[in-house]
Specification:
This protein folds into 2 domains: 87 residues, Ribosomal Protein S5, domain 2 (2-Layer Sandwich), CATH 3.30.230.10; 34 residues. Helix 1 packs parallel to helix 3. 31% of the residues lie in helices and 28% in strands. By secondary structure, it is an alpha+beta fold. It contains 3 helices and 6 strands; from the N terminus they run E-E-E-H-E-E-H-E-H. The strands form 2 sheets. A 4-stranded mixed β-sheet has the order 1-2-4-3, with helices on one face. Strands 5-6 form a two-stranded antiparallel sheet. Strand 1 and strand 2 form a beta hairpin.
């Protein structure tokens, strides 16, 4: 029996404390090639989530994205790498001084630099992990 590796799935699950929306796109490919777009706070779950995908797919390029929205301030607090930001600003200040140009830092620009932001390093709650695995399974079905 011939089975297609081309498909699309979307799943929206609202739970207490968060809403998850999965989107899965797959196209024909010789090997299983997973491309993830996960929020920083749950990137550590990728190996567990890959096991879920492997129950449904053995071949194909599969693009998987998750939008995770926390309600009521229940989400993890982001971590800002202040030391890295200071080093970057110091380097820019030195560059401007060498060129004889004024330098006024734009702190708002730091908000757009993903390398300065990350999760707090906390482990993901097991109930959230199980809910995400279930939501991914629904999108894959």
């Amino acid at each position: 029996m011939l089975r297609s590796m081309t498909g699309f799935g979307r799943c929206l699950v609202e739970s207490e404390g968060f809403t998850q929306q999965w989107e899965v796109k797959s196209v024909n490919s010789r090997h299983l090639d997973l491309k993830w777009r996960l929020p920083m706070s749950v990137r550590s779950l990728e190996p567990r989530l890959e096991k879920v995908v492997r129950r449904f797919a053995s071949r194909g390029r599969v693009d998987i994205s998750l939008t995770l929205q926390y309600t009521g301030g229940t989400g993890p607090a982001p971590r800002f790498d202040a030391m890295q930001a200071e080093a970057m600003l110091d380097s820019l200040k030195d560059l401007a001084a060498r060129r004889g140009e004024p330098f006024t830092p734009d702190y708002n620009a730091l908000l757009a630099l993903p390398g300065l932001w990350g999760d707090a390093g906390d482990e993901v709650d097991e109930s959230l992990t199980l809910a995400l695995e279930e939501g991914l399974s629904l999108a894959l079905e």
